[in-house]
Amino acid sequence: MPTFKLDEREIPFEKGETIIQAAHRAGIDIPHYCWHPGLSVAANCRMCLVEIEPPPGRPAMMLDVLEWDADAQDYVPQKKPKLQPACQFQAGEGMVVHSEGSKNVKEARRAVQEMLLLNHPVDCPICDQAGECRLQDYWLEHQGSKKRMKDEPVHKPKAVVFGPTIVYDAERCIVCTRCIRFCDEVAGDSVLDLRERGNLNEVVLAPGRELDHDYTLMTEYVCPVGALTAVDFRFKARVWFLRSARTVCVGCATGCNAFLDFDPRDQKVYRHRPRENPDVNKYWMCDEGMLSYSRVHENRVLRAEIDGQTIEFERGLKKAAKLFKSADPDRTAIVLSAQHSNEDNFAMLVLARDYIGSGNVFVNGRPGGDSDEILRDADKNPNARGVVGLCTSAPPAPFKELATALAAGKFTHVLALGSDASDPDEVAAFEDCENLVLLTSHRGPLAAHADALLPACTWAEADGTFVNRTGIAQESERAIFPHGDSLPAWKLIAAFGRALGHSFGWTKLRHVRAAMAPDPGAEVAADAEAQSGAPA
Amino acid sequence: MAFALSAERENELDQILSRYPNKMAACIPVLHLCQDANEGWVSADVIAFVAGRLELSTAQVKGVVTFYTLFNEEKPGKHQVWVCRTLSCALRGSEDILRHCEKKLGVKQGETTRDGKVTLRTAECLASCGTAPMMQVDKKYYENLSMTEVDRILDRLLYDGDA
């Protein structure tokens, strides 16, 4: 691989790569606003200027400038090298680039930073971006001086509603055009553009339009400053109080990698945002996924319930188990959930296979929805492939078959993970089910017919593995502690097994994982390989 | 009401398009053509028309319209007066000329007289510094202005309707 020198360090690059791309990959951050690894190059913020030495034997391109000389109390002519934007300049073999090490670059960055802040309102105390704002970070790193301009700054529109999800403040905007390029290039809907020029520049909507495509929240996320704010997050939290867990979005089968931001003090989640993964979601997430974090707190089942009455957890567990004491294994149905992780479903399978002795395994989940060519999948469950992969002997039967069998009176007992219904029209079949026990995090459509509800954790409160639509097994980290009496579903299943009188000894996640295949995604991966005809 | 071009102007549009490597590149001349056909301004309908013809988003066309001062976002007066305010003219009294015009027309810069006859604007350098101060009325230059000369020009616009 060819290399170039950046501040005395050898940086490898691929042909055609720009200086900033190669540096980014090597883990060096050249300060920038408008450049984004997933978007086209605009080179308009000028923050990434670097000094490039001329090729051997060639003179450097020098510019005539006037510089203030404090001793002479006058401007004196000076020569300075022409700096280049690292985001646009392609790296070349043996090129010598100075970034942090160049006095000229430092001076340029200070000047660019000062210019970007000229008309900025500096309203950080009421700005949601504060704490993760590049203007703040770079002011500290590259400027650190007070404002010198004494004129009234240019005033522009504030709190402009762009659509149902985004509010725009033109005074905070540095016109980097990231949001515009995101809409053009990724979302494929050119709904934003700039109006005017110079210091009157601002981002505007297309006439008669709203910012209402399926990826609007990403415009806020790519905004390096506080110009675009999300209606959902506005004034809800200060980011420095938040911590992030590395999770997987459970909104659909794509399994976008995400950060779930939560406040450890009140154990609430506040935000879902994309985590870079070139194999899955690149840098992006859809609105549906980014807003799906709210499920952690909405419509939860947090206490045990028997026949609709809240009950103390241990007593509820015993009463629920009692329903199953005399169950005939052949007339018992076990329902897995594509909403739950591999660990949870594996525990359910072990309970069914090894302890209850029932082979009547079904799979349930949320009903399908919209999809597109960008990220969103029609299957709104994060682990459908994982569940199928776990059922090695026979694939689980769909929810609809369970409803049909119930209507025909085939089952007397149903133990289900989750309370969703992948076929909402079929829920009525559960009305007459004599013994329906749900281990569920949410009050889904089945909950109304349940004889016992036991509280399970959401994905935010438990570690787990999810297998996405392409067969990639991904781990999701716990963010907050379990709410209410809820337990991670695998733990709840083990407790239920013990209440039934079995020696279901798992108490730690590693017990589950040890009992599972060494690699939870192995079967699925092997399956995918067999299907594609590649040698095993 | 949706905007449309006459057959003659449609011909012109096709000719413009044939001169450029892609449709986007023809945005400015096409906008000028449509502005002329729409009483001198670019309405939302015109933007939609141009965007449709050039396969651009309306946001992109709107961006071009707002970038260039020669595109009007509101209907201008019958005549447009541009008073140059850049250095040479400023040194030779363009400020006073502008004040004088404002007083005489009864409008501020950027506004149109109530009878719709004259729009008063300022311009950056119109490249006639040797004959400062100067102003442009529609497409014609008036140079080495004096207040009496300005009065005469404006009177003609207001009362004769012709520069």
Task: Give the topology.
The complex is a heterodimer of chains A (about 525) and B (about 160).
Chain A: E1 3-6, E2 9-12, H1 19-25, E3 49-52, E4 62-69, E5 74-81, E6 84-85, E7 96-98, H2 103-116, H3 134-143, E8 160-161, E9 166-168, H4 178-187, E10 192-195, E11 202-205, H5 216-222, E12 228-230, E13 243-248, E14 257-263, E15 268-274, H6 287-291, E16 304-306, E17 309-311, H7 313-325, E18 332-337, H8 342-356, E19 361-364, H9 384-390, E20 397-398, H10 399-407, E21 413-417, E22 435-440, E23 452-455, E24 464-467, E25 473-476, H11 489-499, H12 509-515, H13 522-532
Parallel strand pairs in A: 1-7, 18-19, 18-21, 19-20, 21-22, 22-23
Antiparallel strand pairs in A: 1-2, 3-6, 3-7, 4-5, 8-9, 9-12, 10-11, 13-14, 14-15, 16-17, 16-23, 24-25
Helix pairs in contact in A: 2-3, 4-5, 7-11, 8-11
Chain B: H1 7-18, H2 27-37, H3 44-54, H4 58-67, E1 79-84, H5 87-91, H6 94-105, E2 118-123, E3 135-137, E4 140-142, H7 147-160
Parallel strand pairs in B: 1-2
Antiparallel strand pairs in B: 1-3, 3-4
What does this structure look like?
- The complex is a heterodimer of chains A (536) and B (163).
- In chain A, 24% of the residues lie in helices and 21% in strands.
- Chain A is of the alpha/beta class and 536 residues long.
- Among the domains of chain A are: 3-143, Ubiquitin-like (UB roll) (Roll); 304-531, Rossmann fold, CATH 3.40.50.
- Chain A has an 8-stranded mixed β-sheet with strand order 17-16-23-22-21-18-19-20. Chain A has a 5-stranded mixed β-sheet with strand order 2-1-7-3-6, with helices on one face.
- In chain A, helix 8 runs parallel beside helix 11 (489-499).
- Chain A is elongated and about 100 Å long.
- Chain A starts with a strand and ends with a helix.
- Residues 529-536 of chain A have low confidence and may be disordered.
- Chain B has 163 residues and is of the alpha+beta class.
- Chain B has 2 domains: 7-67, Orthogonal Bundle (Arc Repressor Mutant, subunit A); 79-160, Glutaredoxin (3-Layer(aba) Sandwich), CATH 3.40.30.10.
- Chain B has helices at residues 7-18, 27-37, 44-54, 58-67, 87-91, 94-105, 147-160, and strands at 79-84, 118-123, 135-137, 140-142.
- The radius of gyration of chain B is 18 Å and the shape is elongated.
- Chain B starts with 6 loop residues before the first helix and ends with a helix.
- The mean pLDDT of chain B is 93.
- Classes of the chains: A alpha/beta (536), B alpha+beta (163).
- The A-B interface holds A 190-197, 204-209 and B 44, 47-48, 56-60, 62-63, 66-67.
